Every structure is written in C-alpha cells, then in structure tokens.
C-alpha cells in the first residue's frame, strides 16, 4: 500500500479535531434565551420633550409568553404625569405637530402587532416619524423580557 506521508499520530489528531468540531456544533444549537410562560409588564425610562416640546412621556408593554414565544402584546404610551396618550393626544398643538403626535399614538398598536407577528424584537423596525415611540417600545419590551427569564 502506498503511504501518503501522514503518520498515525497526525491521523489521530485530525480525527480528534473533527470529533470535537462535531460535538461543539451539536451543543451550540441551544436557544439563546428561555422565557417562562406568563404575562409580564415592562416600562421604558422617561423621555423628555424634544426641541419642539413634543414627545415627553414613557411607554409600557404587557406581553404574554407561551412556549418561549410572545403570543400577545399591548403597548401604551403615557405623558410624564401618567395621562394616557390617546386620540386626544396633541390636541393643544399646531396642526403639524398634532399629526406627528397622533402618528406616534397609532404606531403603538402597530409595534405590538409586529412583535407578535415577527416573534422577535430584532425583527421590528422603527416606523418613520415614530422613532420616539419605537425607542420607548423597545425599552419596555426588553424590561418585560428581563422579567421573564
């Protein structure tokens, strides 16, 4: 038989390396996080108003987890005094700023629905014109998920 110049020791090292690679690969398939089933509430930090005086407040989410998946989510935004930002939010502002305020309020429902549909906060993109509410949403979701670990 013709020799290819690989010693028995080298063959053993190669075989051991391949086996180690297979074992490491098979063990790394674990999910990065396991969440406990239940309903969790999260809150963002207080956001101070931007230069135009808009947006001050915070966001709260309530998420329900079942079998390590987010199956329900609600997101509400509040003014710093605890007043819910609803269809009247921004009524005391100029027409342009009222439209911006209402777009932020409407984005709350969309963010919550997107999280349930996509299953991951990483897959929920900011809605143009609703970046402040997106930041509040992501902070609040992360707060809630930290409680579910």
Description:
The chain is 41% helix and 17% strand. By secondary structure, it is of the alpha+beta class. A three-stranded antiparallel sheet has the order 1-2-3. β2 (58-66) and β3 form a beta hairpin. The radius of gyration is 25 Å and the shape is elongated. Residues 15-32 have low confidence and may be disordered.
CATH architecture: Alpha-Beta Complex
What is the residue-averaged pLDDT? Answer: 82
Computed structural class: alpha+beta
Strands in their spatial order, largest beta sheet: 1-2-3
Coarse morphology: elongated
Biggest pleated-sheet summary: 3 strands, antiparallel
Low-confidence stretches: 15-32
Q: Tell me the span between the first and last alpha carbons.
A: 60 Å
| Tally of DSSP helical segments | 3
Instruction: Give the total of domains.
Output: 1
Order of helices and strands: HEEEHH
Strand content: 15-25%
Oligomer: single chain
Helical fraction: 40-55%
CATH class placement? Alpha Beta
Radius of gyration: 25 Å
């Amino acid at each position: 038989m013709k020799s290819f110049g690989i010693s028995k020791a080298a063959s053993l090292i190669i075989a051991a390396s391949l086996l180690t690679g297979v074992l490491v690969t098979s063990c790394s398939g674990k999910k990065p996080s396991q969440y406990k089933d239940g309903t969790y509430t999260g809150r963002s930090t207080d956001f101070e108003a931007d230069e135009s005086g808009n947006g001050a407040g915070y966001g709260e989410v309530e998420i329900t987890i079942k079998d390590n998946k987010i199956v329900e989510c609600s997101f509400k935004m509040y003014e710093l005094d605890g007043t819910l930002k609803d269809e009247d939010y921004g009524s005391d502002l100029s027409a342009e700023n009222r439209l911006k305020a209402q777009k932020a309020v409407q984005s709350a429902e969309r963010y919550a629905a997107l999280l349930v549909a996509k299953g991951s906060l990483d897959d929920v993109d900011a809605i143009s014109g609703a970046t402040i509410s997106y930041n509040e949403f992501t902070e609040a979701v992360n707060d809630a998920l930290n409680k579910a670990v």
